[in-house]
């Protein structure tokens, strides 16, 4: 039997004062779909287009914590601690967690690499060399 590489859907990111592991595995994805009443693709699109519900943001983070190895009780307590904070402070994290579950992370590349760079194509570095000056 071969080993399955589940690391391609893992996000390591700061949350609640320390680096934490997040992962939406099949069980967490099923629970997210049950709670939100839509498929993971719809939640992924709604987070990306800012048409999300409060529940979607917090459930992605909570379930991501659980999938990353945090107990359900601790994950719920951690999320509840921040529910009075501006939602935009946590939307990027929820987006990274669900994007890793849907798109994966390229082999050999940590999901945390390059997170300080803009994802806006207009401000991203060019992939082609510039003309000589």
How would you describe the overall organization of this protein?
The chain has 133 residues and is mainly alpha-helical. It has one domain (7-103). 43% of the residues lie in helices and 9% in strands. It contains five helices and two strands. It has a two-stranded antiparallel sheet with strand order 1-2. Strand 1 and strand 2 form a beta hairpin. Helix 1 packs antiparallel against helix 3 and helix 3 packs across helix 5 (91-103). The longest helix is centred in the middle third of the chain and has 14 residues, at 54-67. It is globular. The model is unreliable at 111-133 (pLDDT under 50).
Helix content: 40-55%
DSSP strand tally: 2
Question: Which stretches of 5+ consecutive residues score pLDDT under 50?
Answer: 111-133
User: Sheet bearing the most strands, described?
Assistant: 2 strands, antiparallel
Cα-atom radius of gyration? 16 Å
Instruction: Tell me the number of structural domains.
Output: 1
Give the overall shape. Answer: globular
Strand order of the largest sheet: 1-2
Beta strand %: 5-15%
Question: Ends: how far apart?
Answer: 57 Å
Average of the residue pLDDT scores? 82
The computed structural class is: mainly alpha
Count of DSSP helices?
Answer: 5
Order of helices and strands: EEHHHHH
């Amino acid at each position: 039997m071969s080993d399955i590489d589940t690391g391609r859907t893992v996000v390591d990111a700061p949350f609640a004062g320390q680096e934490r592991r997040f992962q939406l595995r099949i069980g967490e994805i099923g629970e997210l779909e049950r709670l939100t009443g839509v498929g993971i693709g719809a939640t992924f699109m709604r987070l990306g287009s800012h048409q999300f519900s409060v529940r979607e943001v917090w459930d992605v983070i909570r379930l991501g914590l659980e999938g990353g190895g945090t107990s359900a009780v601790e994950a719920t307590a951690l999320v509840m601690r921040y529910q009075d904070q501006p939602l935009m402070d946590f939307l990027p994290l929820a987006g990274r967690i669900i994007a890793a579950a849907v798109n994966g992370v390229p082999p050999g590349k940590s999901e945390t690499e390059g997170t300080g760079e803009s994802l806006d194509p207009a401000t991203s570095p060019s992939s082609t060399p510039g003309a000589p000056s």
